[in-house]
Amino acid sequence: MPLMANGCVCCSLRSDLVYTLSALLDAPRPDGEGPLQRVILECSGLSRPGPIIASLADPELARRGLRLTVVCTDDCARDPDALAEMDEAMAQFGAAHRIVLTKTDLLPDGALDARAVRAAALNPLAAVIADPDRRRAVQAAFAPSQGVADLAGLAARMLTAGVQGVAHPRIRVMAARAHAGISWPEFSEWLDNLAGLCGERLRWAPPSARRNA
C-alpha cells in the first residue's frame, strides 16, 4: 500500500503527493476489479488549495488525464463573519468547484437559504450544495463533473439568480476575455503580470482545471 510521510500536503509534501498518487495509480488491482475510478484527497481546514492544485498539475499526473474537482465544506455551526476573516477559509472557498453546507440542522428555522446565498456570494462559479439530507449532499458533492459545460451552466445560473448583488467585502470574482488573434507570448506575459500583482490573493479557475480526481 502506498504511504505518504507525515507532514503538510500543501507545502512540505508536495513532491511526495505526486509520487504517492502515481504509485497508487500504477499499483496492481485485485483480480476482477477495474482501474480506480476516484481518488479523494482530504485536507485539513488549514490547508491552502493553491499549492495542492499546482502539485496535481505536475506533468507526471497531467499526462494521465485526471479530472480535478475541489470540494469545500461550509460549517453552518460557525459564524460566517468569523470564517470571512480566515485567509485559509477564503482561499478554500475561492478555489472550490462545489461548496457543501454541513451541520445544517444547527441553523435556525428558515436560515438555510440565506446561508446558501452567502456561500454563493463567496464564489459565484461554485455549485452550492445545501441539502439537509446528508446522503444526497454527499452524492452531489462527489458526483462526476460535467467539465466546461458544467462551468458554463454555473455561470448562467449565477447571472439569472442575481447572486452578484450579494457583495463580499474581501472577495471579487472577475472574468477576462482575450481578443481575437492574441499570441501566446502576449497572453503568457499578461498572466505573469497578473500573478505578480496579486500574489497569493489570486484564485482563478480556468476551464481546463475543472476535472475530477
UniProtKB/TrEMBL annotation:
Residues 4-129 form the CobW/HypB/UreG nucleotide-binding domain. Pfam families: cobW (PF02492). SUPFAM superfamilies: P-loop containing nucleoside triphosphate hydrolases (SSF52540). It comes from the Eukaryota. One of its GO terms (cellular component) is cytoplasm. This is CobW/HypB/UreG nucleotide-binding domain-containing protein. It comes from Rhizopus delemar.
